[in-house]
Amino acid sequence: MLRAPGGRRRSRVPLLLLAVLLTLTGCAGAGALAGGERTLVIAIVANPQMNDAITLSDRFEREHGVELKFVSLPENQARAKITASTATQGGEFDVVMISNYETPQWAANGWLTDLGPYLEANPDYDADDFIPSIRESLSYEGSMYAVPFYGESSFLAYRKDLFAKAGLTMPEHPTWQQIAEFAAVLDDDEAGIAGICLRGKPGWGESLAPLTTVVNTFGGRWFDEDWNAQLTSPEFREATKFYVDLVREYGEVGASSAGFSECGTRYAQGQAAMWYDATVMAGTNEDPASSKVVGKSGYVAAPVVETEASGWLYTWALAIPASTDNADLAWEFLSWMTDKDYVRLVGEELGWNRVPPGCRQSTYEIPEYRRAASAYADATLDGIRHANQDDTMTRPVPYDGIQFVGIPEFQDLGTRVSQQISAAIAGQQTVDEALRQSQSYAETVGESYRETR
């Protein structure tokens, strides 16, 4: 892993962030909601895979004699609510949906239940079946503190029929410059087809996820080894200008407010020729119940410039807050929803394209899934396999993460920077103006790390 000596991430909660969290935290705990009965309160991010879990959850309720209460929110709101409750030990939730960004930090802070004892007591659950990089990203000091529901890297989906019609050929490993050329040819305002769909919605987990991978492969980074902010460096500026110009010229209408869900809808409805985003998108693209482009897409590696790869590594996972009084029951739910049997349940009940991808190696050995996911299974695994700092960055950095900076302050910093970038996408300011302001935000964070090294 590329990391500067002495640059180990510290676990801490910035006072400003904690003050914000305190204002967001609700006062009702999960125990109070339960009223003495077997009830679990589960905070999740609203997305298709989690909606499927809710649909199937009555099986767990019947088998275990428990009532499940889901609190489902859009990503940005869910992050704020879950962070607030967990950081302040509010006891509001028994299970929380978090990612590999939060898990190591929160484990170090003592906010999460160590799942190691549960895994050791349940060998049939087979934690060794998880893809190693995904499992490692949810671990702290050798023990897992969250279990993955689905994992992902990022890749590019493209309409094979539109490429053929235009006489274009997509390389297996395209460059961003090639993608921009394709987008210019395929952008068709009259037909209502954007050349490409890219996230522009504010949020450190929204627009900054794809943008940061572009920054990485252009040779940029958020901080150098000494925590000096690099957002106005030539490489960071070139990457950001490329991204903003691409989406402004050939991207979707309303790009400054488009996130994963909005781009997913547009692509599935045939309104974009290409879409760069999370590998988990493929299941929705190929679902006949929601997509008009089933069977029309190809999937290739995340575009690059100076690096071997540029895909991110991410997993939505389930964890148990240390504050819950229902840890054992919460584990029963976690192990049900992330077990091999759940994969088969989704495939058989809802369709194999809706199986949560990118977590268990055994999923890719199921014949029905291999057939359903033939267009994207290998591309997904390849993306996850190459999602490491050595393959996706050009120079050392003092932080963990590919599409995020693995420090507590990044929730606030990333959100502020994303707002500046979205304003540039909307044409409200220039890229240089956006980056100058963003640099000042990052300098404040970097200075605090230099002072305590």
UniProtKB/TrEMBL annotation:
Sequence intervals crossing the membrane: none
Sorted UniProt keywords: Sugar transport, Transport
Keyword Cell inner membrane: no
UniProt keyword Secreted present: no
SUPFAM superfamilies the UniProt entry points to: Periplasmic binding protein-like II
Protein name: ABC-type sugar transport system, periplasmic component
